[in-house]
Design a protein that fits this description.
transport; 0% strand; single chain; 245 residues; flat; mainly alpha
């Protein structure tokens, strides 16, 4: 009972929201009459492909962002590169500030349409949360803790790996969760440049004036974002060292 009380509210409350929304959508789906176009778009075979492609876009973009942003954030907190931090953050902020559709269109002129272009646009758009949280997480580590680790003979690298990064994990993973949710939503726009995603349902619903298809696409994107956010929260809790809230 005590262990359950220590579990954060969002860890068990978010799945309840997912179940309620999912069950509500299934009930609506079974009781609604669809046009032939809607039936074709919402068939399981088509939905399976669309959802998997959307997840693929999100996961590939997230992996690339993590591989780029976390090491860069670590490097920018080291004394030798600290002076470049404002420049790097401002450059990353350009991608976040630019409209997502405009960003994807600009990359289309350079790289053409398709999956690769969508990935590049998504990576540029999602770098800032992870980069900034990595820097903030490492910056907030108590300097006295770092000095103590160096005082007992830890090297700079060992201090980083065994002291600084474990203490910064909650903040860094929070940035990763934020980036994941951003990417799930932004990936819907990849349909405009020829990449398959759940945005295809939304744009088809808007173009052909099929509100049921539009609603289905929006709900599925919301459910996917909630599920990924919840899974990210579980990873964050599991990776956070004991004693750190």
């Amino acid at each position: 009972m005590n262990r359950l009380r220590r579990v954060p509210l969002d860890v068990w409350f978010e799945p309840l929201i997912i179940v309620v929304i999912g069950a509500g959508y299934l009930l609506w789906y079974r009781s609604t009459t669809f046009t032939p176009t809607e039936q074709a778009s919402l068939s399981w075979a088509n939905l399976q492909t669309t959802i998997l492609e959307h997840i693929k876009l999100t996961v590939v973009a997230t992996v690339i962002v993590v591989v780029v942003a976390i090491p860069l954030g670590i490097a920018l907190t080291r004394p030798t590169l600290k002076r470049f931090e404002p420049l790097a953050v401002n450059i990353a902020n350009i991608g976040q500030a630019a409209p997502a559709v405009g960003l994807l269109v600009l990359f289309t002129f350079w790289l053409g349409t398709g999956f690769r272009t969508a990935i590049v646009g998504l990576v540029v758009y999602a770098v800032l949360p992870i980069l900034q949280n990595t820097i903030v997480g490492l910056r907030q580590v108590d300097q006295r803790t770092i000095e103590a680790s160096r005082g007992i003979g830890f090297s700079g690298t060992r201090t980083l790996l065994q002291v600084e990064l474990p203490l910064a994990v909650p903040v860094i993973l929070n940035g990763v969760r934020t980036a994941l949710v951003i990417l799930v939503g932004t990936a819907t726009l990849s349909t405009f440049i020829g990449a398959t995603s759940l945005g295809t349902l939304i744009t088809t619903g808007v173009t052909l004036f099929l509100p049921k298809l539009l609603v289905s696409g929006a709900i599925l994107v919301a459910l996917l974002a909630l599920i990924i956010d919840w899974l990210g929260r579980l990873v964050e809790l599991a990776a956070t060292p004991r004693g750190i809230s």
